[in-house]
Write a structure and sequence with these properties.
The protein has two domains: about 5-165, Fructose-1,6-Bisphosphatase, subunit A, domain 1 (Fructose-1,6-Bisphosphatase, Chain A, domain 1); about 175-290, 3-Layer(aba) Sandwich (D-Maltodextrin-Binding Protein, domain 2), CATH 3.40.190. The strands form three sheets. It has an eight-stranded mixed beta sheet with strand order 4-3-5-6-7-8-9-10, sandwiched between helices. A five-stranded mixed beta sheet has the order 12-11-13-15-14, with helices on both faces. Strands 1-2 form a two-stranded antiparallel sheet. The chain has seven helices and 15 strands. It is globular, with a radius of gyration of 18 Å. By secondary structure, it is of the alpha+beta class. The protein has helices spanning about 5, 10-30, 50-65, 185-200, 210-220, 240-250, 280-290; strands spanning about 40, 50, 70-75, 80-85, 90-100, 110-115, 130-135, 140-145, 150-155, 160-165, 175-180, 200-205, 220-225, 255, 275-280.
């Protein structure tokens, strides 16, 4: 089954946004060979922007604008909200190219979006109408959820996304993907990591959030980028990364947390807000939430 057929029967406006993601992903997948350099600009976080970062951002903004139903878009590459259509009633949040620093060594990178039936993105993730991500690797993969299952598609030679697996369910394997430096771990997090290691969890870390979470969905386990010494709010962005992926994980039978609170229950106060992230199996998340209740 093709993605366009899988989207039939849902809210046509919501379907048009997911179709726009697929169209943009096809363009981005073909653009890596010609856009491998850096630019002379930095993003809102002070990070040097790669040419591919800026171009992918532009591609998706143009695609979502053509739907006519997206009022505004919040992008990791843009300091402020981008207004798209005065008559639109949706807001899209986006990390246009997650893990882009890995392009130079040809590792998998991705795109993450969240879709709110709201003109503002400052809503808890539980209010998402849909979320999706794209992986650009040996296959170009698109995974989406509208709150009733999580579904995976792969792009074929004709540029169409073909259903690979409907209703993905997180695996039962034991993998952990730990971001951050061990020397900076807080005591409760260090104890949790040691508990995972004692239980035989294998370390598997790609370095791109979307790639690591995709692996966890398929194989089981947990990804984390925690609060740490000097970084109490972690590294990942709530709106652009944590909430959409947490929504997808929930609909694949898993959970997400900042270590104490479900990610989907956190109401963002600003666009570029960061949060500690734990995402994966329910058991692993319950372990860290129990551990976080202790004083560091």
């Amino acid at each position: 089954m093709l993605l366009k057929d899988h989207l039939k029967g849902m809210d046509p406006e919501l379907g048009s946004i997911l179709s726009a993601l697929a169209s943009g992903a096809k363009k981005v997948a073909s653009g890596f060979i010609d856009r491998q350099g850096s630019t002379e600009t930095t993003n809102v976080y002070g990070e040097t922007q790669l040419e591919m970062d800026k171009w992918a951002d532009k591609v998706f903004i143009e695609e979502f604008k053509t739907t006519g139903v997206v009022f505004s878009l919040a992008s990791e590459e843009q300091e402020d909200l981008v207004k798209l259509n005065d008559q639109g009633r949706f807001c899209v949040t986006m990390d246009p190219l997650d893990g882009s620093s890995l392009m130079g060594v040809d590792l998998t990178v991705g795109t993450i979006i969240g879709i709110y039936r709201s003109r503002s993105p400052l809503n808890p993730g539980r209010q998402l109408s849909a979320a999706a991500y794209v992986l650009y690797g040996p296959l170009t993969i698109l995974v989406y959820s509208i709150g009733a299952g999580t579904h995976e598609f792969a792009m074929n030679a004709d540029g169409d996304f073909v259903l690979q697996k409907e209703n993905l369910v997180i695996g039962d394997g034991r993998i952990y993907s730990p971001g951050g430096l061990r020397k900076d771990y807080l005591p409760h997090h260090r104890s949790w990591i040691e508990s995972l290691e004692e239980l035989g969890y294998k370390l598997r870390f790609c370095g791109a959030f979307v790639s690591d979470v995709h692996q966890i969905i398929h194989k089981g386990g947990v990804f984390t980028y925690p609060a740490s010494k000097g970084r109490p709010n972690g590294k990942l962005r709530l709106l652009f990364e944590a909430a959409p992926m947490g929504f997808i994980m929930k609909n694949a039978g898993g959970r997400s947390s900042d270590g104490k609170t479900d990610i989907l229950d956190i109401t963002p106060e600003k666009l570029h807000q960061r949060t500690p992230v734990y995402i994966g199996g329910k058991g692993e998340i319950e372990m860290i939430e129990g551990s976080s209740g202790k004083e560091d």
